[in-house]
Amino acid sequence: MVLSELYWDHHIPLPKLGPLQSRLVTAFVALVCFINSYDGDFVFDDSEAIINNKDLNPDTPLSNIWKNDFWGSNLSSNSSHKSYRPLTVLTFRINYLLAGGLHPIGFHMLNVALHCVISVLMIDVFAILIGGLVHDGRGAKLSLSPKASFLAALFFASHPVHTESVSRVGRRDSAGCLCPALEFLSVGGDKKFSVLWIFGSILLCAVAMLCKEQGITVLIGGLVRSGLFMRLALLFLGGSFLLYARWRIMGTGPPSFTEVDNPASFAENVILRIVNYNYYYSLNAWLLLCPWWLCFDWSMGCVPLIKSATDWRIFWPLLLWCCLMGLVYQALCSQDSNKRRTLTFGLVLLVIPFLPASNLFFRVGFVIAERVLYLSSAGYCLILAYAVGFCSCHWKKHKVSATLTLLCVNVARSAQRSQQWRSEQSLFASALSVCPLNAKVHYNVGKNLADRGNQSAAVKYYREAVRLHPKYVHAMNNLGNILKERNELKEAEVLLSAAVNIQPDFAAAWMNLGIVQNSLKKFDKAEQSYWNAIKFRKKYPDCYYNLGRLYADLNRSIDALNAWRNATMLKPDHSLAWNNMVILLDNTGNLAQAELIGKEALKILPKDHTIMFSLANVLGKQEKYKESEGFFLNALKINPNVASCHGNLAVLYHRWGKLDLAKRHYELSLRLDPSAPGTKENYNMLKRKLELRQRTVG
């Protein structure tokens, strides 16, 4: 075969570039699309995968990444997501080590670089799938479809559906795609059958599966080689072994998901499930065709279920299957062997990587997830490149402008979407127009507003989230918290009570309900709520702290001290619990014990000015003036603008007889807070004393 035999490649409206130039252009396009996210924040569930994941910390044993899931939870735990991706987590850990901490820029830059590398590799992958590679007699391999493979790689590099995989830190999809690309290049470039190459495919498959579950689809690369029976037998045995090993690692059970994650999978009627699954497939196909409506989350009512044969949306899965059947017919029955080859591999690459997300083999935890289309989009880009070549053969006019327009639109949309992924504020706000029925979108917008201090605006979105999904306990809990802060205690109690009735093991809601009931003077109910929270979350230092406050309000000093001691045992740096112990012991006259507790706390929190302040007060009452002065002054070094600290230091100097210093700190206290209780009276008393001293001296 010679290059001229692929007639439609010559009609592709792109210049014929050399191998190096085409790779540089492809990498540049990929870079332009996503580089504006390089200095973005950690967003959405990056907080769980990165910020709160202890497996990234160098102090955590490296062996833990092989025992835990992607989110850092033990795989044997009932709450585990069962997403076993240790190699992806290892890349996060390397990022952490190189950057010296959780700095997003390093994570984002590696993601963008990885996408650029994969996009460049896809040139040769597409070349192999379209027409293969031939030797030029000097050992070099030449593509039979240089323009088509280049165009398909440009489509892949710039496709907006990749934004979640590239601009989000997650990385699992792009990392999992690297191995399939390498496998195609190493196994698919030579058509001669080799058992060694088959085992290489299985090894790359194992590596890919340690990045993400879809890595099993690496094995499709072996289909481009000869030796069909032996090849398929070895691939089947290898794939089966890897699937069995993964099943064992997962604890021989799939993860558990709720109805809001994937409502179609919970439909009782099998026909309804099938119809809605197919509707989901059509929406995924639409995201590939027209990636304008992109959203970070498609659950919680974003895609209402089809429940009736009269629902007009049934048309879309029917249209999808008509298109797929048309492509399959052309792939099987066309007289053009190259067309059959290109469409066959395009369909295989489109469909097979999507199968793990299709609900066919097990329930997945999402309705639509743009990230799972990362590898499938390569099949779509291959078919699209063929379509451009086919149309260019028959319609000469405007083919250059049409192709360039399509590429420019993709680049512009990718850059725009990448910009939206830079911060949670822009990401969540962008979803409101795409999924206005999604309660989680409103919840996240509200949470972001609350985190930025705009609680009044947050209330509106939390209320809408609860309206859209009346059993959304996290929205109820957060709304209840804001209402509690605004002293709207009755409504807060109703919301939090509803949340714990819906989800009885919701420990945080029990604790917040206890705080509200305590404020409403419903002390018995508050105590019971706190103990319910502790029952469902054994290690809950904040709940013990709030329980101690309740006991202090009830003058149950011993119980309060025990609760706060439990809080500090569970969380040694719990400043409020330590400080409250010192204050309570001070107020009850146990000054020696208060001193011991205060000094114990400062060993753990040596720069905590609030504990220094409380301990200084205790020492002052024991007439240990010099030691007390030291703690007051240290506290003021850390935070010099605390009026009460200046005021109490002035009282110390007043008692100590250092009246000039006392006068100076009274004045500093009154300058910071003119209405400070007792300070003005003490200052006036000191001034009279100083005047009397001057008259006496005079």
From TrEMBL:
Topological relation to the membrane, as annotated: Multi-pass membrane protein
Pathway in which this enzyme or protein is active: Protein modification; protein glycosylation
Assigned EC number: 2.4.1.109
Keywords: Endoplasmic reticulum, Membrane, Repeat, TPR repeat, Transferase, Transmembrane, Transmembrane helix
Protein name: dolichyl-phosphate-mannose--protein mannosyltransferase
Species assigned in the record: Cyprinus carpio
Domain DUF1736: 253-325
Enzymatic class: transferase
TPR repeat ranges, renumbered to this chain: 439-472, 473-506, 507-540, 541-574, 643-676
GO cellular component: endoplasmic reticulum; membrane
One GO process term, biological-process aspect: endoplasmic reticulum unfolded protein response
